[in-house]
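Figure-free illustration: sequence to structure, shown twice.
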Amino acid sequence: MEQTEQRFMQAFKGQFWGVLRWEQLDTLWDAIRADVEGGWYIYALSEKVPDMPASREQVQHFIQEIDHLLRQEHAEDYCGIVYADDLKKPQFVKIFDPEQLGSVCGSSGKTILPGWLLCKVKPTYLSDVLPATQSRKRWWRRLFN
């Protein structure tokens, strides 16, 4: 495994904190928006691994759209489907798809992969374990095409 893959997998398997309340999600988005350094990769696991970090505008657009999708499709009074390595200064964020939750915590014995990642380390291909629905593929392509 090359060094980039090792860094990514170490970050991916690291410790994460759950964003339990919608207000916490707002705070997390604000922290990402305030990150003047940028360098965020946006990776939909059902799509090609990005070669380059997203532009500031792409990150803003993604946050706006994914926030809308999560609040619309995860019709709960709590969030609980977004996880970050640090809630105040995030470097890695896992966003689970409300359409394919299963048991995110892994108690079912199956690992559920997130639908999307926002991360500062260049991602590597994970697998085809979680094929996206056609509606998700259309949603993703509408964002960046």
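We now fold a second protein in the same way, so the two outputs can be compared directly.
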Amino acid sequence: MKIDVVDVGHVYPGPSSRRVLDGVNVALTERRIGIIGANGSGKSTFLRLLNGLIVPSEGRVEVDGLDTAKKAREVRKKVGFCFTDPDSQIIMPTVAEDVGFGLRKSGLPKDEQRAKVMALLEHFGLAGHADHPAHLLSGGQKQLLAMASVLITEPTLLVMDEPTTLLDLRNAAMIGRVVAELEPAVVLATHHLYLLESFDRVLVFEGGHLVADDAPGPAIATYRRLMEAA
């Protein structure tokens, strides 16, 4: 998969007309890409541009040649999205029902849908919770459920916006290990910088600008210098 971000800027509408991205140009092709930056740097807006949750005010974003502003439905079949708070994505009463929700229009027979759901829950260690209330899971389990509910549709790319922010260190490390083993490509924003050490590439945002694009070591070093200077 290739994502092209061309001369992208974004301004949120409203009285303040707040500009959160300006002049971003980047092409993404690697399997593991990290996104880092201070709160308010524009990284979450950048992530939402990648699957059409937000349409750029200026410039264009293309996923395998599909313009996100014109082909959002096709783009979202390719690019899944996990939010920081998994509770915002859990929409069905039980764990299995929540994962299966993504297959409701797949055309698969019910028994095949159930088998696919159970196989994915087994993979994520949630099979024993299949019929449990989804909102009663632990924080780490909820994040696994959110990932499973997106991955059931077999996207080519999974975009994750700070999925470890609300977790303790043990669960954050667990999510990091799971992400490392995922089959789809991943774009991951995080403040847990150690999770990015084995990534292919890391982008650093500051003040709405892409200020560094490098291997993890140099990119993280740049980010640390920016934070120390601030």
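Summary for the second example: Strands lie at 3-11, 19-28, 32-37, 58-63, 66-67, 79-82, 157-161, 185-189, 201-206, 209-214.
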